[in-house]
Amino acid sequence: MAAFPQLVFSGVQPTGNFHLGNYLGALVKFVEMQASYDCIYCVVDLHAITVPQDPAELTKHTREVTAAFLASGIDARKNIVFNQSQVSGHAELAWVFNCVSRLGWLNRMTQFKEKAGKDRENASVGLYAYPNLMAADILVYRATHVPVGEDQKQHLELTRDIAQKFNVDFAESIASHGHGEAFFPLPEPIIQGPATRVMSLRDGSKKMSKSDPSDYSRINLSDDADQIAQKFRKAKTDPDALPSETAGLAGRPEADNLVGIFAALRGSTKDAVLKDFGGQNFSGFKAALVELAVEKLGPVGAEMKRLQADHAYIDGVLRDGAARAREIASKNMTSVKDILGFVR
Ligand code: TYM
């Protein structure tokens, strides 16, 4: 396959309760990747409306996620930060992909099955076609690297399948329009580190999620020091002391989760954490975890609140990012239209 210029794309839904899983699984990587790549980070409001949203809340949450990006250290001048609905190329390419992607592929998507639940007949068509829009988000920029949490792995595999099928189905036209043997790269998921799947603090078998009815299941980025302390203190554990090596975490999902969170917050590994805490009981470990979490998350939460209140500033960042994103996306959409044979 031809070499594509390296470009990072990722997205976060503005659906409220931005939590520690989003932060450690995605945002920390977004920030790290800026050192070596050009990056495009998107607040995916078109994805959010696949389930019902209160319009006023959607606006608030869009600004909240944007503020989280900036407060964590994403540089919106060097890179691009914007909300999806301001760049029409996402929806346009998603339609093209609705015609490339196969029903059989979408039927395998576990996230749709989870989100639609038992009342599948009543789920929106958008929720079903959601992964095609996600493929469009990435490929409208011809992005090559996508930092995400573990839960998005299947969607990234589908993105690669769609890119591949488009490249094969239209190979002749792609070549005749001067794009060589492939128009889309096969984007690589970047799923790394000790916190690719942060679990609920109440139940180590469930993912930490925005929609869990119990606020004690997650640490929100907007939580203050007292809330962080209370939630970790109440977090479910088991009666044994911590093991000295990671192998000892097998079959102990709650312990594994807290050690993973500690390692990710400290920027180290589970092994290194267990070297320090192996043999200790949970009360001492939790106290150290609270201290570390407050130290790392406190300043981000405070800056996020400050930025979030400045609507003019946040909206300006999104508008500016959207203008730059639109330039790249529309150039690629023009090529896609030529490849498909659309008259323009
Ligand atoms: P979303 O909004 O649910 O989550 C945003 C990011 O946070 C990660 N994440 C987690 N990581 C570790 N542990 C957890 N408990 C946890 N919960 C969430 C997610 O993996 C994600 O990286 N479909 C995507 C948004 C999206 C997207 C894209 C991502 C739309 N288009 C294009 C990448 C590229 C989603 O719903 O993420």
3D architecture notes:
- The protein has 344 residues and is mainly α.
- It folds into two domains: 8-196 and 310-340, 3-Layer(aba) Sandwich (Rossmann fold), CATH 3.40.50; 215-306, Tyrosyl-Transfer RNA Synthetase (Orthogonal Bundle).
- Helix content is 54%, strand content 6%.
- It is built from 14 helices and five strands.
- The protein has helices spanning 20-33, 45-48, 55-72, 89-98, 103-107, 110-116, 125-139, 153-169, 171-176, 225-234, 253-266, 270-277, 282-309, 311-340, and strands at residues 8-12, 39-43, 80-83, 145-147, 188-190.
- Strands 1-2-3 form a three-stranded parallel β-sheet. Strands 4-5 form a two-stranded parallel ribbon.
- α1 (20-33) links the parallel β1 (8-12) and β2 (39-43).
- α3 (55-72) crosses α13, α4 (89-98) packs across α14 and α11 packs across α13.
- The model has no long low-confidence stretch (mean pLDDT 97).
- Tryptophanyl-5'AMP (TYM) binds at residues 9-13, 21-22, 25-26, 44, 47, 134, 137-138, 146, 148-149, 151-152, 155, 196-198, 207-208.
Q: What is the molecular shape?
A: globular
CATH topology (level 3) name of the largest domain = Rossmann fold
What is the total number of structural domains?
2
Per DSSP E runs of 2 or more residues, the count of β-strands stands at 5
The SS-based structural class is: mainly alpha
Strand content: 5-15%
Radius of gyration: 21 Å
Distance between the termini: 29 Å
Q: Tell me the name of the CATH class of the largest domain.
A: Alpha Beta
CATH level-four homologous superfamily name of the largest domain: HUPs
Proportion in helices: 40-55%
CATH architecture of the largest domain: 3-Layer(aba) Sandwich
Could you state the order of secondary-structure elements as H and E? EHEHHEHHHHEHHEHHHHH
Major sheet attributes: 3 strands, parallel
Low-confidence stretches are: none
